[in-house]
Amino acid sequence: MRKKSVEVCLTPAVYDTFKSDNAIVVVVDVLRATSAICTAFMNGVKKILPVATLEEAKAYKKKGYMVAAERDGIVREFADFGNSPFNFTPERVRDKEIVYSTTNGTNTIMMAAHSYQVLIGSYLNHGALVEHIIKEDRDLIILCAGWKRKFNLEDTLFAGALAEAVLQNKGFESICDSTLAAIDLWNIAKKDLIGYIDKVAQRHRLKKNKLDDVIGYCHTFDITKKIPVLKENYLVPVSG
Amino acid sequence: MRKKSVEVCLTPAVYDTFKSDNAIVVVVDVLRATSAICTAFMNGVKKILPVATLEEAKAYKKKGYMVAAERDGIVREFADFGNSPFNFTPERVRDKEIVYSTTNGTNTIMMAAHSYQVLIGSYLNHGALVEHIIKEDRDLIILCAGWKRKFNLEDTLFAGALAEAVLQNKGFESICDSTLAAIDLWNIAKKDLIGYIDKVAQRHRLKKNKLDDVIGYCHTFDITKKIPVLKENYLVPVSG
C-alpha cells in the first residue's frame, strides 16, 4: 500500500502548489490564533466562525455576535476581545458561538476549506492531533500561517514537531524539502524552545505591544485533547 | 548610521514581500543554473542573455545564437546544450554570447531586474560575493530560485552560508526569520555538506536523469572571483 505523504507548506503564499482535495490540512498559527482556538475549545466554546476580513467581523458584531478580532496583535475597537489565548476563558466562552478574525490565522483556515479535513493545530493539542492523523491515514499538509505571506519560525518549528511525530508511523513518508527543513529546525530548537523563540520576529512584535505573556503557554505540549475541525464554515470539536 | 539589512527570500513566490529598488539581490539556484552561470564566466564567456520562456530561447536559436536550455533538468532538443556546469567549457564559451533558459533560475533573475543590482551567486564565487556585498554596503536580499515556486533546501543552505558570512561584518543585520532559519540549517549541513545534500529532492531528480555528477562541483567554495551581474538584460562580469 502506498505510504501517505507528509508535507509542510511554509507560507500560505505557496499553498496552491500543495493543494489536494483528499488531504488533511493542519493549520498552524502558534502565536497566537491556533493556540487561542484550541484554548477556546478546551474551555468549552460551542463553535467558532473564522472570518477573513474585519468588515465581516464588524457586521457580525452588529448582529449581536460575540466577536474576537485583531490586526497586528492589537484588538480592534469594535470587538469584544482580541487574539490572546488568555481571553478565551471558560467564563467567557463556554457554550458560546464566537466570530473570530486575525491577521494571518483565520484567512489561512478558509483557504484550506476545499480539502478533506481542516484541523487546527498547536502545541496544546499536539498529541491528540498525531493520534487522529494516524488513525485517519491520509496525506497530510501542515499549513503554516506565517506572517503576511512571509515565512515565520514559530509555525515552522511546530510543523517540524508534528511532522516528526507523524513520521514515526511507518505508514507515512516525507516528500518535500520543507518537511526536512522544518524537522531539522525543530531538532535545534527543542533543546531550549523558549530560548530559541526569543529570536523570532513575532516575539519582538508581541513584546513591543506587551503581548508576549503568552509565549510560554503557547509552547506547552498537550494540555487538551480537543481538535477543532472546520465543518460548513464553522470550527467545532472533531468528536462533536 | 543605519545597519544594512540581510534578508533571505526562500522562494520567488514571496519575492513581492521583499522587493526593494535599492537593494542588492543575489539570485541562487545552486543545482544548477547559477553554478553553471558562474562557471561560464570563469571560463571566459562574454555575456549571457537569460530568457524566461523556451519560446524566446527557440527564437534566438533561429536567429543563430548559441542557446542553453532545459526544463526539469533535461536539455531541449533545439538547444546547443543544457544546464550542467560541465557544458560551459572554455572551448565552447570563451568570448561567446549565450542565450540561457532554465526551469527556475532564469526567470528568477529577470524578476529582480528592478533592483539596484542583481548578482549571480553560488558556492563557486562565495568569497568574492561576500567581499563585493560588504564593499557596496547596501541592503541585501538573497533570492532562492527554489523549485517551481516551492522551497528547496540546497538554495536555502547557500543563502545561510552567504548570510552568515556577510553578517560577520558589523554594518549588516538580520531582519527576518527566514535568514535565521537559513543560517541554522547551514550550520547543521556544513558539517557534512554532500552527505546532507543527499536527502534533498533535487538530488533525487538529478540522479533519476543521471545528472547528479555535478553535486560535488556545485558545492565547492571559491573556485572563481567572477561575479555575474545583470546589466540591460544581459549578464556580464561585475568588473567588466
Describe the model.
Two copies of one chain form a homodimer. In chain A, 36% of the residues lie in helices and 20% in strands. The first copy, chain A, is α/β, with parallel strands linked by helices. Chain A has a five-stranded parallel sheet with strand order 7-2-8-1-9, sandwiched between helices. In chain A, strand 10 (228-231) and strand 11 form a beta hairpin. Chain A is globular. Chain A starts with a strand and ends with a strand.
Summarize the structure.
The structure is a homodimer of 240-residue chains. Chain A has helices at residues 33-42, 54-62, 90-93, 105-111, 126-136, 153-167, 177-189, 193-197, 201-208, 215-218; strands at 4-9, 24-28, 47-50, 66-71, 74-75, 97-101, 117-121, 140-144, 172-174, 228-231, 234-237. The first copy, chain A, is of the alpha/beta class and 240 residues long.
Describe the protein's topology.
Two copies of one chain form a homodimer.
Chain A: E1 4-9, E2 24-28, H1 33-42, E3 47-50, H2 54-62, E4 66-71, E5 74-75, H3 90-93, E6 97-101, H4 105-111, E7 117-121, H5 126-136, E8 140-144, H6 153-167, E9 172-174, H7 177-189, H8 193-197, H9 201-208, H10 215-218, E10 228-231, E11 234-237
Parallel strand pairs in A: 1-8, 1-9, 2-7, 2-8, 3-6, 4-6
Antiparallel strand pairs in A: 4-5, 10-11
Helix pairs in contact in A: 5-6, 6-7
